[in-house]
């Protein structure tokens, strides 16, 4: 506890100086900076090598801070009460007096916002005088980071500080919901859309395809381990690492398991670190067996589809 307290204070000192640092969240690690500071936000884009037209998510501690920057509505209130803090991101309209840097939103009049659940990050957000803009802590288009060692691997010495908060409990990014006109899902993520549908009892469109221009970050190649990847494979080819959803009796050294017993939640948590491990072992190709397209399996398949465009 004590060391956490001093680490949180250290993180605050960096952020107050408009530096960016890595922070833990329950989804994936974030590369965070003061969302009200142009210079801080510009540093995030530069470090990540992220195109400036791909807007960032802004992280708040509570509603009070959010209301100064965004206009909320009935759908937001319902979802917020049920799922925040947690792995859901809302796209809302900006208020006239919003202090969010225009570099966060790429000059749009909407912004993506989230209330992360990780206790360490919540304690940090509570003592800051500004919300944190934070995309995933990885180089653009590469695998997201779910533990401090991943962040280190991505940025090396270029990143000044990592607030260490262990392994991310969910391991895939947040689900993004657009609430600015007809409600729609812009990115599949850690919160199952069936749960959202139960709360919002109206039609919800899923607009997570690349050709959709509402969410500019939905590039076709994304979440890539940097080697070719095939999905729905029954038998691997020579030299391919083979990833299976559950442990098998018959195994070989190129077989890797996402979970012991077909557990999709564990599989999601293991997805990025397992791909990182396979890449680091020197494999040049990777094949995945068919992952059930239900629950968080939908999110896993979404990520694999994008990674397979490599
Ligand atoms: P990341 O920071 O990598 O988790 O990606 C955040 C994603 O949120 C972006 O790639 C966009 O797809 C989405 N996003 C952020 N801001 C907006 C916005 N104002 N409107 C629509 N989508 C957004
Ligand atoms: Mg990302």
CATH topology of the largest domain: DHBP synthase
> What is the share of helical residues?
25-40%
Number of helices: 10
Could you give the order of the helices and strands?
HEEHEHEHEHEHEHEEHEEEEHEH
What's the architecture of the largest domain, going by CATH?
A: Alpha-Beta Complex
Please state the CA-atom Rg, rounded to the nearest Å: 19 Å
Q: Measure the end-to-end span.
A: 43 Å
Number of domains: 2
Q: Identify the CATH homologous superfamily of the largest domain.
A: DHBP synthase
Strand % is 15-25%
* Arithmetic mean of pLDDT: 94
- Based on helices, strands and strand pairing, what is the structural class? alpha/beta
| Main sheet: strands, sense, barrel | 10 strands, mixed
User: Which cofactor or ligand species appear?
Assistant: adenosine monophosphate, magnesium ion
Shape: globular
Q: What is the class of the largest domain in the CATH system?
A: Alpha Beta
Overall number of strands: 14
Q: Which regions have little confidence, pLDDT < 50, spanning 5+ residues?
A: none
Short description, anyone?
The chain is α/β, with parallel strands linked by helices and 310 residues long. The protein has helices at residues 2-16, 38-48, 63-69, 74-83, 102-105, 119-127, 148-155, 193-199, 264-280, 297-307; strands at residues 21-23, 30-34, 57-59, 70-71, 88-94, 110-114, 132-133, 175-178, 184-187, 205-206, 229-230, 240-244, 255-257, 285-288.
